[in-house]
Amino acid sequence: MSQSVTVRVPAKVNVQLAVGAARPDGFHDLANVFLAVGLYDEVTVTPADALRVTCSGPDAGQVPLDASNLAARAATALAGRYGIAPGVHLHIAKDIPVAGGMAGGSADAAGALLACDALWSTGASREELLEICAELGSDVPFSLVGGAALGVGRGEQLTPVEVGGTFHWVFAVADGGLSTPAVYREFDRLTAGTTVPDPVVSPALLGALSSGDTAALAGVLSNDLQAPALSLRPSLARTLAAGTVAGARAALVSGSGPTTAFLTEDEASARAIADALTASGTCRTARIASSPAPGATVQRP
Predict the structure, then answer these.
(1) Which of 93, 104, 209, 300 is deepest in the core (most CB within 10 A)?
(2) Is residue 107 a contact partner of residue 10, using CB atoms and an 8 Å limit?
(3) Spatial CA neighbour of 226 closest among 216, 240, 215, 213
(4) Closest residue by Cα to residue 263 from 217, 294, 210
(5) Catalytic residue among 12, 29, 41, 108
(6) Is 268 exposed, middle or buried (0-12, 13-18, 19+ CB in 10 A)?
């Protein structure tokens, strides 16, 4: 048995997040177009006497290190399916913003799942791994596959999406996090008494991704969770405005927030906009990244 396995796994941005009304099970039907971006966590698993989680990197202190950690739950789920004792040390090297709407926890779960699968040589099929991912959370399957995909149902049923070029982004990291369940509750409050349309994917958005056209994509980005995120965190409006004034082609809240995403013309523009956002005092830090990025990948020595 290998002594350790490391998996690199990307963050995501939602270039379209259409949200339907709450279902009887409390979830919402989605039309969710994911794009993996080049900000990564690394998850390393090493054999141990018992399951243990450690974390390093920015905001590591905000990551739970007990059995509630999604990476720990992923290891436990895979071990349970194959009758293996989940004796591993999981170390998460964080670089994806924590509780920032970029699926950092989901990425860690996908990374832990793939790393444990390799460490234990379970022989699990891709379909089995995706099934476990879906049990863990709505964003976890995409963290495993990366690239670009349309997620329907609660976001876990994926169809690959063609991307014909590279898109450049700036991500403004806010102080503190936003709870995804709280943002969905605020969505329900804001839409109470109205007819919420069924979520459908935008053909124009799929066309912009396929052609690699930044200007076209800028015109069709959308996020139905932006209004509730701004309702809970009004200061995000200043961040969105600062990035727009600095020259971003488009600005939106990333997923459930509070990270905000800015689509830029090219890498040079991204660097200038990141500098302007940092100087504006409306965010804690700004990161640049391009997309699409590969999904969870075992790192070879």
Answers:
(1) 104
(2) yes
(3) 240
(4) 217
(5) 12
(6) exposed
Q: How many CA atoms lie within 13 A of 174 on its CB side?
A: 25
pLDDT of 1 over the 60 cut: no
Q: At 262, which amino acid appears?
A: F
* Residue whose entry in the numeric block shows the structure tokens 């200043």: 238
Q: Helix 126-136 to helix 104-120 angle, to the nearest 10 degrees?
A: 140
pTM: 0.93
Give the Cβ contact number of residue 27 at 10 Å: 15
Tokens of 3: 């002594």
Place of tokens 């450049």: 168
Neighbours of 1 (CB within 10 A): 7
Closest-CA residue to 151 (of 245, 14, 272):
14
How far is CA 36 from each of CA 163, 225, 231, 294, rounded to the nearest angstrom?
11, 19, 27, 7
Q: Which helix (H) or strand (E) holds 82?
A: helix 70-82
Q: Clarify whether 139 is annotated catalytic.
A: yes
**Does the annotation count 12 as an active-site position?**
yes
Mean pLDDT value of segment 250-271:
96
> Contact at 8 Å (CB) between 85 and 50?
no
Residue 18 bridge partners (DSSP): 31
Alpha-carbon gap, residue 92 to 282, rounded angstroms: 28
Distance CA 233, CA 120 (A): 43
* Per annotation, catalytic residue among 25, 139, 198, 213: 139
Please check the confidence at residue 101 and state whether its pLDDT lies above 90: no
